[in-house]
Amino acid sequence: MKIRLKVWRQKSNQSKGGFKEYVLNDVHQEMSFLELLDILNLKLAKKGERPIEFDHDCREGICGQCGMMINGIAHGPLKNTTTCQLHMRSFSDGDTIYVEPFKATAFPIVRDLKINRSSLDHIITAGGYVSVDTGQAPEANSIPIAHEIAEAAFDSAACIGCGACVATCKNSSAALFTSAKITQLEFLPQGQTETKKRVVAMVKQMEEEGFGHCTNTEACQVECPENISVLNIARMNYEYNKAKILNNK
Length: 249
What we know:
By secondary structure, this protein is α+β, with helices and mostly antiparallel strands. Helices cover 37% and strands 11% of the residues. It has 2 domains: 3-111, Beta-grasp domain (Ubiquitin-like (UB roll), Roll); 118-248, Alpha-helical ferredoxin (Fumarate Reductase Iron-sulfur Protein, Chain B, domain 2, Orthogonal Bundle), CATH 1.10.1060.10. It has 9 helices and 7 strands. The longest helix has 18 residues, at 231-248.
């Protein structure tokens, strides 16, 4: 396959960026998209040019590091798929593919396709944990949790923090990410004690990081590789309003 890549190149957050074109004539359809970038980087290195920087880690679709915009879509054209699990068979011979980083105020560009997503970590630090004594694990039946509740908590916990929801939202909102991290703990007995404190702290931190507000377009769920439900956002809003009312009392 012959693929024409137009990749966003930017030396730093302070410099001006732009698309640069590269042509690859030996692309195999079974390559992953990141393998395509690896091959391009090898060619650039051999010519003494600076390789393209991009985030990646596990390359198994579970770490959330590989996010990028591919032809204007977070993670590319396949639904519920991370960039590292996207393969070139999803494209055709002769295609032109535009590749750029996730762009949001809260995701400053480090270089090329690499961004700083520490803002998501700051939201977790604000309250995405439970304060429980460590030690021997309790007996499994000592805290009965209904199967449907456990499954709902797992569905929310499936969020890998890739930032696709932010990148695809017209407001650059992190509501889906934040609500998933709140809900996964709120469902379980261990997390309910701190629910009021947690939801207020995490929503406050989300706003301080510069993320926009949710206007319910639901584009975040459409592009989420884990198909996290927007119902998490409704639950977060409910818990937030309840916490503010109870705190005022």
